[in-house]
Design brief:
There is one protein chain. Helix content is 30%, strand content 32%. By secondary structure, the protein is of the alpha+beta class. The strands form four sheets. The protein has a six-stranded mixed beta sheet, with no helix packed on it. A five-stranded antiparallel beta sheet has the order 11-13-18-17-16, with no helix packed on it. A five-stranded mixed beta sheet has the order 12-20-19-14-15, with no helix packed on it. β14 and β15 form a beta hairpin. α2 packs antiparallel against α3. The protein is elongated.
Length: 330
């Protein structure tokens, strides 16, 4: 009787041990699966290729679900520099900052006043083991304004001056354009002694069109000689461009340059004749070598100066470029 009881107790204990083992194994498997399911993960439904213009603030959006007690960091890939971790910034470059509203899944890297050198790959990282990361491509481009036509324009007094500034379509808002004459902002003006201020009476007008890029036209009616000067197209989102306008009366510019060239060419003959006479004198005279070398040097300097003047006269006047102070300071 005792042996049977001992037998049944042993069998019961074996069955109980087996059930406990299976239960523990199932519990551990479930815990591992739940742990894997609760790992942070990225939301891939975000823009990961961003193009901005120089000076235009850029935003790289990183969304992380189930972050838990983990942290998010932004890394610049080219030098592996840690820009931000959590809500803290780890760079002395104050243009970089992370934006994250309270309890939000968005970790946005803000880049103020980006430059071309800021282009490259940036990574949003989660400090899991191993680390999880998502790459973003930032491209910073520099837009440039362009005034159609030559850098120097010549118009007759009383005629109309039209200067057209164009900027090709950029990735975002192109802003607007301001025109300057020298350092003075140009504003639309009416004809002197005009009673009406309608468009027909405005002597200086600015027309801006945002269709297919940005086009701005500066029109000056009934040009006078005081309109001569350096004109600059200054966009808010691009590099400026300049031209020099010459308002003339009477002689045509081409004729002016031709006559100036003829006068300069004629003046070149004088030092050449002096050099020829000096050479003949050296061959037929016993005057000291020092005196002749001094005279020769002076004649060569005079000739070089006149050659330079001739080149400047035949190539036309160069335009003076004026840079917008705000844009230069950047």
């Amino acid at each position: 009787m005792l042996d049977k009881l001992t037998f049944y107790v042993g069998v019961y204990l074996l069955l109980l041990h087996s059930r406990i083992k299976v239960s523990l194994s199932s519990t551990m498997t479930l815990t591992t699966e739940e742990s894997a399911g609760l790992q942070p993960y990225f939301d891939f439904d975000v823009q990961r290729n961003l193009t901005v213009t120089v000076g235009q603030t850029g935003f790289l959006h990183c969304r992380v679900e189930r972050l838990g007690d983990k942290d998010v960091a932004w890394i610049r890939k080219r030098d592996l520099h840690i820009l931000t971790t959590g809500s803290s910034t780890y760079t002395s470059d104050q243009r970089f900052q992370v934006i994250r509203p309270e309890h939000s899944i968005n970790w946005t890297l803000q880049i103020k006043y980006p430059q071309v050198r800021d282009s490259g790959v940036y990574e949003c990282q989660i400090n899991t083991e191993p680390k999880m990361s998502l790459s973003y491509e930032l491209t910073v481009i520099e837009l440039r304004a362009r005034i159609l036509g030559p850098s120097d324009i010549f118009v007759k007094s009383g005629s109309e001056i039209i200067m057209t500034c164009v900027i090709q379509q950029g990735p975002h808002d192109l802003g607007t354009v301001f025109w300057y004459k020298g350092n003075a902002l140009i504003e639309s003006t009416t004809q002197e002694n005009s009673v009406h201020s309608g468009g027909e009476n405005q002597r200086i007008t600015v027309e801006t069109d945002w269709t297919d890029g940005l086009t701005s036209r500066l029109k000056i009616k009934r040009a006078v000689q005081s309109d001569t000067g350096n004109y600059t197209c200054v966009p808010t989102m691009a590099k400026s461009s300049s031209v020099y306008a010459h308002v003339i009366s009477g002689e045509h510019p081409a004729a002016m340059q031709h006559n100036a060239g003829c006068r300069t060419t004629g003046s070149l003959l004088a030092p050449l004749a002096s050099l020829f006479r000096l050479q003949k004198s050296i061959q037929s005279s016993s005057t000291s070598w020092w005196w002749w070398s001094t005279e020769m040097t002076l004649a060569v300097v005079q000739l070089a100066t006149l050659v330079l003047v001739h080149l400047v006269a035949t190539s036309g006047s160069g335009s003076t470029i004026w840079h917008h102070p705000t844009r230069d300071s950047r």
